């Protein structure tokens, strides 16, 4: 699960490079968890102290929710205690879609992605609001379903069609 979540944070290609580099550097040695973390940080350029701490020294969980959608404004909420960068897919009322990526301040970097990069989410803030270019019909947090979110039911908002 640790590697799966690392994949979500730094990207699959960086995880593969990290494992290979870690093996090359530490075969026949006695590495510590920090050695693995440092290798992943060097490969990805992302600070990972927070991630190692959350996964090895707490019982915290990951849970994010779509809190509110109004026109072109989307508000997300961190319900669980583990902070994570967020991938969000937005479908507009005209049928077009756009993917967004929200890194964390404490990462001091971001994974490589084709999604629209928006400002960092400060981990101490329980909510995060961003604006889109068009009116929103649907919002989905983690459309890849790679993040270990314990309550996926609150990850999707879909605007209800008006009934006559």
Key words describing this protein structure:
alpha+beta; 5-stranded mixed beta sheet; 164 residues; 4 helices; 2 domains; single chain; 3-stranded antiparallel beta sheet
What does this structure look like?
The chain has 164 residues and is an alpha+beta fold. Helix content is 27%, strand content 26%. α1 crosses α2 and α2 packs across α3. It starts with a helix and ends in a 6-residue tail after the last strand.
The averaged pLDDT comes out at: 95
* Rg (C-alpha, Å): 17 Å
Choose one word for the global shape: elongated
Mind describing the biggest β-sheet? 5 strands, mixed
Helix fraction by DSSP (H/I, runs of at least 4): 25-40%
Structural class: alpha+beta
How many DSSP E strands? 8
Question: Strand sequence of the main sheet, in spatial order?
Answer: 5-4-3-7-8
- Number of DSSP helical runs: 4
Total discrete domains = 2
The run of helices and strands is HHHHEEEEEEEE
The termini sit apart by: 47 Å
Beta content comes to 25-35%
Task: Give the uncertain stretches in residue-range form.
Answer: none
In short:
The chain is 27% helix and 26% strand. It contains four helices and eight strands; from the N terminus they run ααααββββββββ. The radius of gyration is 17 Å and the shape is elongated.
What is the topological layout?
Elements: H1 2-10, H2 12-26, H3 33-44, H4 49-57, E1 64-70, E2 73-78, E3 86-92, E4 97-102, E5 116-117, E6 127-131, E7 136-141, E8 156-158
Parallel strand pairs: 4-5
Antiparallel strand pairs: 1-2, 2-6, 3-4, 3-7, 7-8
């Amino acid at each position: 699960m640790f590697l799966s979540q690392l994949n979500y944070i730094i990207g699959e290609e960086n995880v593969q490079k990290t494992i290979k580099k870690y093996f090359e550097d530490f075969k026949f040695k006695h590495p510590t968890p920090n050695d693995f973390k440092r290798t992943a940080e060097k490969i990805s350029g992302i600070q990972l102290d927070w991630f190692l701490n959350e996964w090895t020294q707490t019982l915290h969980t990951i849970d994010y929710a779509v809190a509110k959608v109004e026109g072109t404004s989307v508000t997300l909420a961190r319900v669980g205690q583990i902070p994570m960068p967020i991938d969000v897919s937005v479908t507009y009322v005209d049928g077009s879609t756009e993917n967004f990526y929200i890194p964390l301040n404490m990462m001091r970097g971001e994974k490589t992605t084709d999604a629209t990069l928006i400002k960092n989410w400060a981990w101490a803030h329980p909510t995060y609001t961003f604006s889109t270019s068009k009116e929103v019909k649907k919002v989905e947090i983690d459309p890849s379903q790679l993040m270990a979110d314990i309550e996926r039911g609150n990850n999707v908002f879909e605007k209800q069609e008006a009934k006559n």
